Amino acid sequence: MKVSVVILNWNGKTLMEEFLPSVIENTPSGVAEIVVADNGSTDCSTAMLKEKFPSVRLIVFDKNYGFAEGYNKAIGMIDSVYTVLLNSDVEVTPNWLDAPLAALDADRSIAAVQPKIRSQRNRKYFEYAGAAGGFIDKYGYPYCRGRVMPVVEEDSGQYDTPSDILWATGACLFVRTGIYRKEGGLDARFFAHQEEIDMCWRLRSRGYRIVCTTESIVYHVGGATLNVESPRKTFLNFRNNLLMLYKNLPERDMRKVLRIRYWLDMIAAVKFFITGNPGNAAAVFRARREFHQLKKEYLPARTENLQKTVASEIAEIRKKSLLFSFYFERKRKFSQL
């Protein structure tokens, strides 16, 4: 089989009943298999899949391994040339496979591809986590073509040109299966949040390209429409972002970047507190404390990344602060950066 479309599920029975039919309808069986890897669900997901979607290959895990390790385990059971990591809340469209697969087939330096991601609930707009391809600034803050900080643009074709990017969203990520395994896949220690950015940065540093092919469109529900993130999500985002910086930053930049990030994180914690979210403020401090506890454990990964780096300068990492541009220069759109 050329492609395996792998959907990681944890208690997503209702979502799969809503969105899996679009995947089955728009995914030619002669080209791709559809795989659901169940992360120890307790909501009768597997029984529903067996009854309603018998053509779907089902992999059942004994517990919830998280996003990262769940996909690592599932892709370890895949034999296809390409794998698509697809969230269970994604609606795909006709011919959604064509442009990403064409890009991968045409250029072996391309390791990963994402399509254009629009909001499933507000279909004229980009989706927060992915849009038309992801980037970061020098301090590790992610943004996208079509989304800068909380500002999401309406899609009027302004980013319809295919583009090299730093990271492809884990909501719909096409990757060469062999490269995924060879270069270590997603960092299972992250559990969830920002692991795809970490992986793509690693791939980019090792000379591979990451691309967004905007001819292909999918619609993602996502979770970024909530105004207040849960403390657990805040903790994982801050901790994993710091770990990602530690793993991937060149030696010449690390000390300065982490010093500035300390103050930026303190400002974030104060903002959470004064806006009535003390749980999220505490999560920032917990994240920083655990980051420092884990640094020694992550030193071998950092050493390996630095040894395997071939791209000393990465164009898709912005040299200026995204926060400064957003809050002080009032730049709200990717095209203004």
What distinguishing features does this structure have?
337 residues, alpha/beta, 9-stranded mixed sheet, 3-stranded mixed sheet, 10 helices, 14 strands, globular
A few lines on this structure:
The chain contains ten helices and 14 strands. The chain is α/β, with parallel strands linked by helices and 337 residues long. Strands 1, 2, 3, 4, 5, 6, 11, 12 and 13 form a nine-stranded mixed beta sheet that branches. A three-stranded mixed beta sheet has the order 8-7-14, with no helix packed on it. A two-stranded antiparallel ribbon has the order 9-10.
Helical residue percent band: 40-55%
N-C termini distance: 42 Å
Structural class: alpha/beta
Order of helices and strands: EHEHEHEEHEEEEEEEHHEHHHEH
Radius of gyration: 19 Å
Tally of strands: 14
Q: What is the approximate shape?
A: globular
Taken as a percent bin, the fraction of beta residues is 15-25%
How would you sum up this structure, described in words?
The protein has 337 residues and is α/β, with parallel strands linked by helices. The protein is 40% helix and 20% strand. It is built from ten helices and 14 strands. The strands form three sheets. Strands 1, 2, 3, 4, 5, 6, 11, 12 and 13 form a nine-stranded mixed sheet that branches. It has a three-stranded mixed sheet with strand order 8-7-14, with no helix packed on it. Helix 6 packs parallel to helix 7 and helix 7 runs parallel beside helix 9. The longest helix is centred in the C-terminal third of the chain and has 31 residues, at 278-308. The model has no long low-confidence stretch (mean pLDDT 95).
